[in-house]
Here is the input.
Amino acid sequence: MTYSKGLHILAEIDTAVIEALTDYAAAKLLLQKIIEKHQLTIVSEVFTNFEGGGFTGVYCLTESHISIHTWPEFGHLSRKEFLELSGIALLGSTLGLQTLTSCESAKGIQGQMVGANHAIGHLLRKAISLPISQTHQTKVLIIGSGISGLTAGYYLQKAGINDYEILELESHIGGNSTFGEDASGRYPWAAHYLPIPSPENKELINFLAENNIITGFDEHNLLIYDEYALCFHPDERLFVKGFWQEGLIPNMDISDEEKNQIGAFLTKMNNFKAAKGKDQKWAFTIPLANSSNDTGFTDLDKISMKTWMEQNAFTVKPLQWYVNYCLLDDYGTPITETSAWAGIHYFASRKGKAANAKDDDVLTWSEGNGFFDETFGQKSVKAYQNPIFGLSD
Ligand SMILES: Cc1cc2nc3c(=O)[nH]c(=O)nc-3n(C[C@H](O)[C@H](O)[C@H](O)COP(=O)(O)OP(=O)(O)OC[C@H]3O[C@@H](n4cnc5c(N)ncnc54)[C@H](O)[C@@H]3O)c2cc1C
Here is the structure.
């Protein structure tokens, strides 16, 4: 399209994505992007959501103006762009339409649930009696071949204790650290990363060094991690009201109050990271066993993260969404059901030190923590090649 002075462009758009028509936030951002891209100058603006209806909005520009009005009851929006620069309207309406249609195509992702075999679990709950099929005599019996069971086998074997058995009720090892494999490669089913350990976590550091994940030290005696195992800082993005923003912490279309609360929350978490109890132990660290028993911190286990946030004036929606997201990701429970101690632990416990990684960086493999199934399992041959599989057999 070529521009001639006084060109007016009116776009009438129908969409099935009614949510996009009820809140002006996404449309406003879209218009901002168009305005920025074409270096136009905003003189003033008015945007209003109509309760239970659509929205209307207008930017007055030094150059002209741009406006939008929606009718969600008809799945319809109209955009009038009165422009003095060629091509802007075409770009704007194309961009708008793509945004709306991309929302539609995101629907209907295929998938399935995997996990523990509940049918077998329920057999145990019902206390069914089965005929004895095998009899074993063993000094140490490990029940479950998840990371805990495999680790126990690995260290027993390292300590020269070979008289142990591992029982597993599924037909594979790994528990929550199980992985899958197909023609495209390996992929984790659940646990997929390990935060780099803090300097006090000697057992884990030794284990990682034994298995060449730690490859040496730099001149300051800082650990060097295998670059192939270090996960580069993920380019995480949020899809907010029809737009992508960089990073997981909400920063797009938020008020000053929301921004301030997010900043204050992150500072508070950093303070918790450095906090020690009366016993001089870290308030929050990994492994949990090394944490302080100071009730000033452990009492946080008695209230939910949501209650703690509200008591500390962390009330705004984007912040609570972010914390909820993190806790769902790590614990599988929302802020209402995760204790404040566990919630703060998520943000304050990672204190790794390394020459080539930041304190909260993580290690990962294509099979996720399934990497450890094999590392522990192969070295503890009994665990890997010969666990006693239970009822699923
Ligand atoms: C979705 C998800 C994502 C996670 N992501 C991470 C992550 O990224 N990083 C991380 O460090 N942690 C993560 N975790 C946590 C991590 O998976 C667990 O902390 C860890 O795998 C627990 O290992 P476990 O051996 O204690 O238990 P499990 O992995 O649960 O293993 C228990 C094993 O015991 C078996 N078993 C149970 N009952 C019996 C019985 N009666 N007889 C015989 N066998 C039995 C089970 O079949 C299972 O194989 C995640 C967890 C989940 C669910």
